[in-house]
Amino acid sequence: MYSQFMRHGQKNIKLCDAKQVYPYKNIKLKLYKNNATIWFNKTCEAKHLTPTYASIKIKVDNSRCQKTKNATIRYRINQEFSL
């Protein structure tokens, strides 16, 4: 029984050095993670949700503190966009 490669003849397969491939793979993974983070932040902002990394807990419950807290959360999320 012949394998699929044997029936169609030997293919010219060029193997490249792993040192050349992995830097590009790492850059690609970083790009994917960055795009996923930006998409997540935009989705949270559109749905008016607060991600856990940006949440702030305060003990005071007056309106001024709540406005400041919400502004700080929005600022943190917007800072993630610029990275």
Brief descriptors of the model:
83 residues; mainly alpha; 3 helices; 0% strand
Can you characterise this structure?
With 83 residues, the protein is an all-alpha fold. The chain has one domain (16-82). The protein has helices spanning 4-7, 18-46, 63-82. α2 (18-46) packs antiparallel against α3 (63-82). The longest helix is centred in the middle third of the chain and has 29 residues, at 18-46. The model has no long low-confidence stretch (mean pLDDT 77).
Short overview:
The protein is an all-alpha fold. It has helices at residues 4-7, 18-46, 63-82.
**Average predicted confidence as pLDDT:** 77
Low-confidence stretches: none
Task: Give the termini separation.
Answer: 56 Å
Number of strands: 0
Helix content: 55-70%
The fraction of residues in strands falls at under 5%
**Main sheet record:** none
Q: Would you list the SSEs in sequence order as H and E?
A: HHH
When the domains are counted, the total is: 1
Shape: rod-shaped
Radius of gyration over all CA atoms, rounded? 25 Å
The assigned structural class equals mainly alpha
Per DSSP, the total helix count is 3
